[in-house]
Amino acid sequence: MNREIQALENNKTWYLTDLPDGKRPIGCKWVFKTKYNADGTIEKHKARLVAKGYSQLEGVDYFDTFSLMAKLTTVRIILALAATRDWYIYQLDVDNAFLHGNLNEEVYMTPPPGLKLTKQGQVCRLTKSLYGLKQASRQWFGKLSSFLLNLGFVQSNSDYSLFTYKTTSTFTALLVYVDDIILAGDSMDIINKTKSMLHQTFKIKDLGKLKYFLSFEISRTKKGIHMCQRTYTLDILNETGMVNNKPCQTPLMSDIKPLFDTNKPPCNADSYRRLIGKLLYLTNSGPDINYSVHLLSQFV
User: Fold this and answer.
1) 8 A C-beta contact, residue 48 and residue 33
2) In this structure, are residues 140 and 98 in contact, taking their beta carbons and an 8 Å threshold?
3) Three-state DSSP class for residue 36
């Protein structure tokens, strides 16, 4: 928590001031998370300060929003090209990505627990975006895309999270998913130069060769690139208490009429929706469960 507050202050995310008349500050809270490696071992324990963006009012303290989500089809195409053309492929992580976006709106926030105040009753006037704000993702992507365009990258019209850089003899592709970046290409010099420029501006973390991205475990051999969601699948089984259950080749009853029995008592709707959402994402690597999951999703 102390490191997070220090990073926010060093980044000049806010300054303390009295709350103007007629203004209402939004709240904030601490979120604690344990990040894991692809093999299930603990990478680090993380504390993040999150603004309660759900209390923002459209047209008052935010206007436009944008969700930065790379298309899975684009990820597959990049990996396929890297495999067939023997490209280098690396993964980068941006430290405190959303904190780099500048705010255009006038947003006030209650001081986070642990922040030392010079005077009672002061609030934080946000000058840069913060995790949880409605416009945070848009502001971060706006700054990153402007930076990449200035470097000579071209933004794709089919997937706005894809940027490409082409010369007469080289080709480099950069794919963004929130604060995770895939950097692939046939020139190690351009890749290293891009890494260096990104680090100077955004303080990136070089995670090395691509191994784990969007819950996909990615392994590369001389035969090609293999993608699977083994760890993600085991997490679902653990969460539902089905690790020791016997597997079934056809995971659906032969008679599906009982599914449509409206006289049955309702199940836990929140847990059901959460599980269906996870299974829908799992169908990206497990097409054998497509029919079952999409049938069950009718009851969400």
Assistant:
1) yes
2) yes
3) strand
DSSP per-residue codes, 242-258: -TTSPP-SS-S-S--GG
Torsion angle (degrees, nearest 10) of CA 75, 178, 206, 204? 150
> In one letter, which amino acid is 100?
H
Helices 136-151 and 188-202, axial angle in degrees (round to 10): 140
Structure tokens at 223: 């035969």
Full strand arrangement of the beta sheet holding 123-128: 14-17, 123-128, 102-109
What is the greatest pairwise CA distance in the chain? Answer: 69
pLDDT, averaged per 10 consecutive residues of the chain (300 residues), comes to 84 88 88 80 85 84 79 89 92 84 87 82 88 87 91 92 92 90 92 92 87 85 86 88 82 71 72 88 78 82
Q: Which of 295, 265, 271 is nearest to 283 (CA)?
A: 295
